[in-house]
TrEMBL record:
Gene3D superfamilies: LCP protein. The chain crosses the membrane at residues 7-26. Belongs to the LytR/CpsA/Psr (LCP) family. Residues 108-264 form the Cell envelope-related transcriptional attenuator domain. This is Transcriptional attenuator, LytR family. It comes from Butyrivibrio proteoclasticus. It holds the Pfam family LytR_cpsA_psr. Signal peptide: none annotated.
Length: 352
């Protein structure tokens, strides 16, 4: 079973488990869920810059492997954090379908890291420019690894079968770009699902950031619009590929839309306890995910109480350049490194 269809059944299974086994059984599932999430990631901690430990050699301090020295301070990786990769796939198909090995898996036009931190009960979202130049693994038509090239990160999902295999490739590329950051799960959603997702929460309010009347007459720059149906699709997906920097503008729109969507989703959930189940059911043939029942049971009690604001949606700085027909975004390595420290690490006191 694939995609959100699996999630729909999973949520039902969790509810049944709570009812029949009671609180103790649910706690067992939560423990298993956390364990499974940790084991699912290919890495346990980011591979940050090697530390200069000379200042601590005679202090009796034991230097932990996941400590990082940055700007004169020491930071410890927060291993309670759970990180998911959310992908918007450039596919207009009505259903997610397996494709032949090659380059038809669909590019990841939207890439966001959803970061859940139970220690401070916060949600952070990191937007990744789809044109970020990074290591991309190349596979042939038989699925055999050929080489690794520097290319736009969105192209990685195009390799593979368009299903779990392509998602695995994309997760690896993003993890490597973020210094082998642990990523505990993923959801890849066809862009054709946007109108459905949008309307399930009653639509989203935005102030239009740029003129998009080429695609939808209502999307005039500066207009206050309640997005419904295809208007939401065009607002999140459309860009003029002939205009330099159009992807950065679209990423900013996606960032704005995501904040509005989360606000709308929270209001919908208050009014309808089954909203999440109904949403997953509505897109069950348009999404691929690897989330399981015990993982949901671990996460569910926390997320509703987590804080989230527009300031919690972060984008990495960098430089956008034109190379022939295509745009290339070169990530600011210092800003990327600082972002990882700020979100995934905690400052600690070490005697020195």
């Amino acid at each position: 079973m694939r995609g959100a269809g699996k999630v729909f059944i999973i949520i039902w299974a969790v509810l049944m488990t709570v009812t029949t086994l009671g609180f103790a059984g649910f706690e067992v599932m939560r423990i298993l869920g956390k364990s499974n999430l940790v084991s699912k990631s290919a890495t346990s901690t980011p591979m940050m810059t090697q530390m200069d430990m000379s200042a601590y050699e005679n202090t009796g301090t034991y230097w932990e492997d996941d400590w990082v020295q940055y700007n004169g301070n020491v930071y410890d990786y927060n291993d309670d954090i759970t990180t998911f990769l959310i992908m918007g796939i450039d596919k207009d198909d009505e259903t997610v379908v397996k494709v032949e090995e090659g380059t038809d898996g669909g590019q990841a036009d939207a890439l966001f890291l959803l970061v859940l931190n139970p220690r401070d009960k916060s949600i952070k979202v990191i937007g990744i420019n789809r044109n970020s130049m990074t290591d991309v693994d190349v596979y042939d038509e038989y699925g055999r690894y050929m080489t690794t090239v520097i290319a736009q990160i969105a192209t990685q999902h195009g390799f593979g079968n368009g299903m779990e295999e392509s998602c695995g490739y994309q997760v690896k590329a993003v993890s490597n770009m973020f210094y082998q950051l642990p990523i505990h799960g993923y959801a890849a959603i066809n862009m054709s699902a946007i109108p459905i997702i949008n309307d399930q929460v009653g639509g989203v309010d935005v102030t239009v950031l740029e003129d998009l009347t080429k695609w939808d007459k209502s999307l005039k720059e500066g207009a206050q619009v309640h997005l419904v149906g295809d208007s939401a699709f065009y607002y999140v997906k459309a860009r003029d590929v002939h205009v330099f920097g159009s992807n950065e503008n679209r990423l900013e729109r996606q960032r704005q839309y995501l904040k509005g969507f989360i606000d709308a989703a929270r209001e919908t959930t208050k009014e309808n306890n089954n909203a999440a189940v109904e949403l997953f059911s509505a897109i069950n043939n348009k999404m691929v995910t690897n989330i399981t029942a015990d993982e949901i049971s671990y996460l569910a009690p926390y997320i509703s109480s987590f804080s989230f604001s527009s300031d919690d949606i972060i984008t990495i700085k960098g430089e956008n350049v034109k190379n022939g027909k295509f745009e290339e975004f070169y990530v600011d390595d210092d800003d990327l490194y600082k972002t990882i420290i700020d979100i995934f690490y905690e400052k600690i006191d070490v005697a020195g």
